[in-house]
Fold these 4 entries.
Entry 1:
Amino acid sequence: MNILLSGRRRAAPRGKYARGKEAAQRRKEQATLLNDAVGRSLLRHGPRDLVVDHVLEESGLGRNTFYEHYPNLDAALKQMEHGAAQALGRACDASLLHAHTPREQLRALVGAWVSFAGGHALPVAACLRIAGWEGRPTGLRKPLERVLGRVLVNAHRAGVIAQTPSGLRIRSAVAVLVELGATTAYARRETPEELVEFGVDACFRLFR
């Protein structure tokens, strides 16, 4: 049969490239399953009692697969937090692309954070839980501090706020935003619009 007339394509031979691509895709899917399982296990069992077996039970993957991706449970937790912080950073940067005035920028940033916390409730809640257990600020603060600091500097230059955006004041504003994120992630009663309004007003009040 003429393959050009049949409308069917002959499968390419399975070579090293095809096998390598399949392996890479499989590893990526495993990493996603493990990352989600780490977050669910952490929220289900708490940081004190969390063990690798909980992650395996949640993910449905084997022990060898887990250790192919992470040397230990602590590394898996750090990777989960690092991945969430990177994704948040991208969302924060993107939020400012079409916002021009300081007020528009702050509203866009707070809105992006509330939206991120609602759309990524599992990793956000897990990151906040592990940071609270370890008695340290969550890694999610870093992208918020970086972008919020930039917005507040612009607001000060434009005369929108009177106080100079110092590190301590910026961290205080970020603490308010982190609390808003926790409220969103844990599905409290407030609407996203109410949370955004509260966050914008609270940030401006700190710098008046």
Entry 2:
Amino acid sequence: MSKNGKQARVEFAIGSYKDGTGQASVLRSENGTMIPMRGVSGTPGAVYLILPSWMNASGKHRIVHLNGRKLVAHQAAFIARLLDAVRQGRVAYNGAIPADLIPGYIINTTATVDQLLDTLINIGVKNLERDRSGRAISSLLFVDNDNQVHFGSEILNDTNLNDLIQFLQNRKQIRVDRSKLLSQGSTVGINANIELTDDSEFIVSGLVKDKAVFSLDGNEDYQHYVISKGVLRSDLNPDRGARMYNNTILAINTSFTGNKAIPNPANSKKAGSAANA
């Protein structure tokens, strides 16, 4: 139940720099225009949830920092092997993906390789236009015009596939498209259902119980997607493995779609990691 019957739409914000000052700020979208939140500073590039003002005794908005979700082993292995198939010429980077392309996986998608990868992870060199730090370069992943796969300081070859898998687990998260996240009504955009086969090494070894690897519904509202799939997680209570929030702080009702996804406070307990805005 919501507090005193009140409900509010889910609203996200992103950290950025103030033009001309270099100071960090938090931007929210209002009628398609990005505007800074007053009295709030954030980490550039970070994603925040804006909590309703009625959840704070002062009547001010609160923001909660959200963390991206890292790739687990069978997800990283799928992406690495898909890239290796591109390197070997078994599939074109902009080509359709055969269902049995990768042993141990069943692939059902109409998306091309580049469309699928661009939805799942940050890939390419476009982010270097904004960030040329050592950290950005060490996390770089792209496919060049000769179908060579570059990751960090390495180039994929016949002997270092496991290095790429470790790189993906250590350096990459499930991608959050910030433009879609801040736009009410945006959708995931592509359909894809990737599952492990019964004889997959991950199933046979018992490391994974659920066969699902990635599941994307092109018509699903993007905000609903990041909530329901746990793509974004809160740091309010990470030890308990909460997808987004400890349920003593906030509950997300994902039975609603589009901009009707509704957060409901379970009680008025204050969260130490939520900042007043």
Entry 3:
Amino acid sequence: MKNKKVLITVIIVLVLIVAVVAGILILKPFDKENDEKKTKNETISSETRDDKKSVDYEEVLTAFAEACKSEKDMEDFVEEYVDFQSLWAAQNSDEPSDLADVYNEADASDYEDEDFIEEITDIFLDFVSEDVEIEISDVEEDGDFSSIGIDFWKAVKFTASSDDEEIEMAAIFCDDKVVIIATPEEIDTLRELDDEDEEDGDDEEISLQEVEIFNTQFEDYEGTSVTASEVKALLDLVVTSNSAYEEDGHFVSVYTYNVSGFDSSDLNDACFNEDVEAAATEISALKSKIVSSKTYTISFVKDFDGFIEEVEIEEE
């Protein structure tokens, strides 16, 4: 598990599968009606759903919180609450309105592929920590997603707390299955999407150029056996970039793995809050722990527009 605060790591992103559109993950589990394998799923539509079905959202969210305590519990959660057919459909949908058709046309051989199932399960297992204690409260339904043609989804707001931390979160459900757990802002963004609202070719080209220019400053440092001086140079670039791009929202977080003598908690907080000044201070502290006798592995995580948004540093 990443060296971030447990609650933040577990709750903010439940599963990083694919950006279907505009940076929102479309992960759509549906209710399994029996244990037999099906080569095709029944047609999904609001007309065939049981809209009167009572769903205990708090029970499902609490099950996830409990599953974070062990790999076995999380594997059981995945088996019960995750629909691999829906996940496969999400990866292969161009627009939100396409998802139901792709789901209905999926063949069991696609989503029951052993490697695919292992990939999804491993992602959920990444959020397991034996020390985690998460409580779910203030669960309430918050409308649907008919504005983007997915009227069988329901939004649910809730509060996740651990020790003295509290985070306001939201989830999407399809009946009693989790679709996505994210921030309320991400849920609102999804509701505002419009399949017909596309940029023209010139705007798309400019966007690609912006991504390339932004990423180029960091990309030479990616890889293994990176020297201490190179790591420090990369960290200096991050500080400079965060200051220069503060108004554009292209904040680059820094997360560490096993860097000797470095307590990353304050840096994690600064990055989570996208606090440019505090992050710069903590990055300076990190630089003092990057030593010439060690080498490091540098990797990047990109946002859904392609911009580098995380630098991950692991001591080798």
Entry 4:
Amino acid sequence: MRRVGALIFGPALGFCFALLLDCGLGHAQSAAAIQQYVAKRNPGCDIFGFAENYRGPLAGSPRPVVIAAYTVEGCGRGNYYERFFGVFYDENGTVQQYKKPPGTLNGVERVTVAGGRITVHMKQLGPNDPRCCPTVSRQAVFELRDGAIVPVK
């Protein structure tokens, strides 16, 4: 894996800036293009905190991927927010995303890739935690199978 980009995004200012080095991938793999893809699929929400966690090959994908964590906030519900991850790829110059696992998977802190598996490191709410401040660490392991991100059993 080679770190090739960084993104600074100010939701209140409505701008983003991506610094991308030559990585041999198309525009659809740029941080800016992926963030636009996520924003389009979450209308009325603020998208921020985009963090690229991995860029490169992934078992089950015929093309390189970018795995990123990001926060979706607002969406007509005040200060409500969730932190997610996505596995993105370039298909004919456009951003595509592998299907996410069913259910809610949020509180994502970071994502790592080893041995073809995706490990999602999360903080979840404990029984006495306020909504703002999850304290329970959790990990979930996934792999790409048949075009979808699926849990490893």
